[in-house]
DNA sequence: GTTGAAAAATTCCGCCG
DNA sequence: CGGCGGAATTTTTCAAC
């Protein structure tokens, strides 16, 4: 499941460039990596085939889109067997953007993105608190996202 | 700073499609949104001009890339005035992918992505613990990322 | 906001080292 | 076999309306 695939230097260089900007043309990547455009195409097709590349998405300024409040939620479960069910129910909430199963006090750790603190309050009260299997939650409101980037390969 | 820009339904539909897959051609978006290709182009140019769209990036399976361990770090600061300096120093650590200024006990909350628990241990001990201004940290290791998605517009 | 046409990129395939 | 190069198709890009 967590296998490590054989990636060569060309693969990593291609990925590093596309992580920075997924819209740069393959022909330009080809020039920078010193291979042909066809090769970039073949390498990307293989990386997608392997499931390493799952697609591309936009980098957005959520603040400017009106989603200025983000929060982390530490969730205490009534018993650990409800994990899968709680995840399913969290997934149904559009404001939940990521869910982690973590070590430590919390069983589940989630991140929410909301328009404002009122919206966050509503989501917590009307959606999260109603989920079966949750004992209680601790909320950490992010007042400012000082940084957010993709991992650097190598 | 946190202004709300006027986006119409067309803008939102275009963004929603590109969030799903930033590589679909503007011509295809045009068909789905019932406008011309030129209009999609103009709308995206404006959204980039406004800074709402900051670019595009790849969606990757970090597990398969050999980065299977992710952790959240609650950081207690010696005094709140060191915030900016601590953020600067965290930014220098390649394994740190996001930094938040939060309410609650921690002054700073960060996320790290590492190859394995040994790598995480090394980063915490050799890099994070050396930062001036940090009193102590609490680590939450994510054993599994059950979900990770972009926010849904509307 | 649309159209249409030039420029560029993608994509595929036969060939070669 | 993996990489290269060229050609057909599609997309991007932009000016005129």
TrEMBL record, chains A, B:
GO CC entries: cytosol
Gene3D superfamilies hit by this protein: 3.30.70.920, Winged helix-like DNA-binding domain superfamily/Winged helix DNA-binding domain
UniProt-recorded Gene Ontology molecular function terms: sequence-specific DNA binding
Alphabetical list of PROSITE patterns matching this protein: HTH_ASNC_2
DNA-binding listed as a keyword: yes
Keywords assigned by UniProt, alphabetized: DNA-binding, Transcription, Transcription regulation
InterPro entries the record matches: ArsR-like_HTH, AsnC-type_HTH_dom, Dimeric_a/b-barrel, Tscrpt_reg_AsnC-like, Tscrpt_reg_AsnC/Lrp_C, WH-like_DNA-bd_sf, WH_DNA-bd_sf
GO terms under biological process: regulation of DNA-templated transcription; response to amino acid
Top-level lineage group: Bacteria
Ranges of residues in domain HTH asnC-type: 7-68
UniProt-recorded name of the protein: AsnC family transcriptional regulator
